[in-house]
Structures are given as C-alpha cells and as structure tokens.
Specification:
With 242 residues, the chain is of the alpha/beta class. 29% of the residues lie in helices and 26% in strands.
C-alpha cells in the first residue's frame, strides 16, 4: 500500500533521531516515504540528518501548530494516504498484551484498509486502564501524535490547540470513516520533553487556547460535542454518542 509518513518537528533534532526515526528504522520503513516538516527556525540544523538518513525528505514548513498541519495537507496530493507521527514517539503497544506492535507495516496497511477514505488513530496513552482496548468506528478523539488519514485538501484547520478534534469533526461532516484503534497505545514523552511545536506556547497560553478552542468547537458543533471541565479549570471536549 502506498502512503507517506509526515513528521512535523521543531527544535528536537536529537529527540527525533533517538525516538521516532529509530522507531521507524526498527520496523524497516522505507526512508524515502518519510517527510520531515520542519519549523523555519531550525530547518538548517535538520539538514544534518542527511548524513545518516540520506533518503528522507526535509521540508521547510510553517511556524505554529495549525499552520504546520495545514502546510502538510497542502503539500500532499488530494487522496494521498498520510501517516502523521510526532517527533518523540518511542513505540506502539498492544494494550491487550502489553507488548510492542511487532509489524508496523501490517498495522498501518490494516488501519487504512479498515478506514477506507477516512481517518484512523490509536489511544493517546500506553495504559490499558484508560482505553477501550478495541476497535471503534464513529466519532472519537484521534490524536495527531500517531494517526493516518486520506488527504483532503479542502480541510483547513483554524485552531492552534485541539486541532485534532477539529479535523475529526470535519472528516465526520464529510461522511468519511473514523476508526479508533483503542487496543493500541503510544509510548511517547510528549508531556515531559522540552521543545516541539507545543513549546511555541507556554503552559498558561496553552490552557487559555485550549479553553478558547473548546468553546469554539462547542459553539460550532453543539450536536456533536460537549465540554467537560477539570478541577483545574481546563476544558476538555467530549464527543456525543450519535
């Protein structure tokens, strides 16, 4: 099956090599399929990767989370299959066995076959307690940390935070399949690793933007979602059962 792997990255050259690129190389992923979309400020630094990864593509992208995601959408052809991976993914875990996924290629192929022309994703955590541990079709959170989708150029993201919820809703409204592979979790250091696209915002800015984004999504799509507010005041989006 033909697909390309898109990895947005900012100021995480060493982490990218030690985590996501090492993970992909372990699974013998064709490096000519890998496209790095790099923040303009660190683009020149990332060119050093060509010494060890001569076949990967290094593209100067745009600053900002939504701008980077939209740049990737516009870069690839309409209908192209894309696997979007963050730059600090260490592994995928089968939550039912607590063992790593043995064949990443088969998993990706199977996920695209099941989701057809839609979008698929995995559990955001590597803990079975917080997941359904099964496949689920329909509205679900699909985190951008590791997901696959058929490219739709008409989908343009407006939010810098919770843009992954926005994308799922737009796939849903186009009648596309949404598949959550809840039996697979991601081993990542997203919340503890410095740098990355989210580092453009400090903690307070991210909270403010998430709360703003949650209110925007609720206002636009009240029939699809609702807000759950944490004790900290942080607002999360939850999808309704449809």
């Amino acid at each position: 099956m033909t697909y390309f792997i898109a990895i947005p990255s900012y100021n995480r050259l060493q982490i990218l090599q030690n985590k996501t690129l090492a993970f992909l190389r372990k699974h013998d992923i064709d490096e000519s399929k890998i496209f790095l979309f790099v923040h303009p400020d660190s683009y020149q630094d990332y060119l050093l990767l060509k010494d060890n990864y001569p076949d990967i593509h290094i593209i100067e992208s745009r600053a900002g989370i939504k701008n980077s995601r939209n740049f990737i959408t516009n870069f690839f052809n309409n209908g192209q299959r894309i696997v979007s991976i963050d730059d600090d993914v260490k592994d995928l875990i089968n939550l039912n066995t607590n063992q790593p996924i043995l064949d990443l290629k088969d998993f990706i192929d199977d996920s695209f076959n099941m989701s057809k022309d839609g979008i698929w994703g995995v559990s955001a955590l590597d803990n079975a307690f917080f997941s359904t541990c099964r496949d689920k079709f329909g509205l679900s959170s699909i985190v951008s940390t590791f997901c696959g989708y058929t490219n739709i150029k008409s989908i343009h993201l407006e939010l810098d935070v919770m843009e992954d919820f926005e994308r799922v809703i737009k796939f849903h409204n186009l009648g596309r399949t949404i598949l959550k592979r809840g039996w697979v979790g991601i081993k990542t250091t997203y919340w503890t690793t410095r740098g990355g696209l989210q580092s453009i915002l400090n903690k307070d800015e991210r909270i403010d933007k998430q709360n703003y984004s949650a209110e925007i999504l609720l206002g636009l799509y009240p029939d699809l979602c609702y807000i759950r507010t944490r004790k900290s005041g942080l607002k999360d989006i939850r999808f309704k059962k449809i």
